[in-house]
């Protein structure tokens, strides 16, 4: 039974890691805590839902569309809104992000009502067993594999491309990046677009595994924040480690104490990490 719990936690933790990648990227490069992050995940989920419902596009195929659409939305929001107050205090950027979240959530409520929906694929209930000791749902395994692929692509972009070098240099030393010719405004817009695109991908996978609604964004923002804090900023491995840690902890806690305590477990871990290691597991030493 312990093996089954750990496997379930790892599979869910992979999704948490993808959710947090976008927030970690934006936070680490632009020093903005994007509290509208969960709303972008929600938009990715509904993009997949409507493509599946209206056009019959398989959700794993629609992943390409949700990433692309959310990337464009994120790029535009940063370039034409956030960029206007990019040099303002953290409080002002938080207020703007909060305003964006309210606008997205209320627009979604008007457009789609508060009904809870689910992407129901024909293969949603299929699974396979490894001997007699663990059963793995096929959809969750496919989602986890896609998280690995997307994470690898992100790692390649950040470490093997000119864009990645621009993003890393801007995060490390803004003034030095400008001196060597980095277009900071464009880099910020692309960074925000990538972060929101990752949120769109997470939304697609979430819509396959769990029910969705226009008001789902708030708790997902908090979960992403917890994962980032656990893993620490400064590395793409941080969200991965944080997501897997949270996923396994929630799986064990839900089994022993009940699913109603899942969020309590998450925020208890957050408080402990903030007390014992404020910069996260992979963050720098104090």
Automatic annotation (TrEMBL):
Annotated Gene Ontology cellular components are: plasma membrane
For membrane topology, the record states: Multi-pass membrane protein
Q: Which GO terms describe its molecular function?
A: transmembrane transporter activity
Q: Any one Gene Ontology biological process term?
A: amino acid transport
Listed transmembrane segments: 15-37, 49-77, 89-114, 134-158, 188-212, 224-249, 256-276
Pfam families tied to this protein: BPD_transp_2
For this UniProt record, give its keywords in alphabetical order, as a comma-separated list.
Answer: Amino-acid transport, Cell membrane, Membrane, Transmembrane, Transmembrane helix, Transport
Location(s), subcellular? Cell membrane
Q: Would you identify the family this protein belongs to, as annotated?
A: Belongs to the binding-protein-dependent transport system permease family. LivHM subfamily.
Name the record gives this protein: Branched-chain amino acid transport system permease protein
Tell me which species this is from. Answer: Desulfacinum hydrothermale DSM 13146
Q: What is the lineage of its organism?
A: Bacteria, Pseudomonadati, Thermodesulfobacteriota, Syntrophobacteria, Syntrophobacterales
